[in-house]
């Protein structure tokens, strides 16, 4: 099992807006890409409290690659991120993707 984790920093004071953005973002992905598993959204309550994370589990790398290939060329999907940066909801340059493998 692989876990895809996308992390971004929220601009101070914009947590409610970031939560709304994250939910729209997940809805857009699930509506327009095939094979997308359940995506969960988390906010760190301690440490860097302005960090938001999206997590999804995939059975294998082929499933993950299929979803990533679909989203790489989907303008509406990426327009949500552009909007979040332009409206100063997420910190530009703070998005980080990671993949962890269950052992």
Task: Describe this protein's structure.
The protein has helices at 15-32, 61-72, 75-86, and strands spanning 2-9, 39-43, 51-58, 96-101. The model has no long low-confidence stretch (mean pLDDT 87). It has a 4-stranded antiparallel β-sheet. The protein contains 3 helices and 4 strands; from the N terminus they run E-H-E-E-H-H-E. It has a single domain (2-97), classed as Alpha-Beta Plaits (2-Layer Sandwich). The relative contact order is 0.31. A hairpin with a 7-residue loop joins strand 2 and strand 3. It is an alpha+beta fold and 103 residues long. Helix 1 (15-32) runs antiparallel to helix 3. The radius of gyration is 14 Å and the shape is globular. 41% of the residues lie in helices and 26% in strands. The longest helix has 18 residues, at 15-32.
Topology summary:
Elements: E1 2-9, H1 15-32, E2 39-43, E3 51-58, H2 61-72, H3 75-86, E4 96-101
């Amino acid at each position: 099992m692989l876990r895809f984790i996308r992390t971004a920093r929220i601009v101070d004071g914009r947590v409610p807006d970031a939560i709304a953005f994250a939910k729209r973002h997940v809805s857009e992905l699930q509506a327009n890409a095939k094979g997308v598993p359940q995506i969960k959204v988390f906010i760190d309550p301690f440490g860097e409290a302005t960090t938001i994370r999206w997590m999804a589990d995939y059975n294998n790398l082929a499933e993950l690659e299929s979803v990533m290939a679909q989203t790489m060329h989907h303008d509406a999907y990426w327009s949500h991120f552009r909007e979040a940066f332009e409206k100063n909801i997420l910190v530009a340059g703070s998005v980080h993707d990671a993949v962890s493998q269950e052992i």
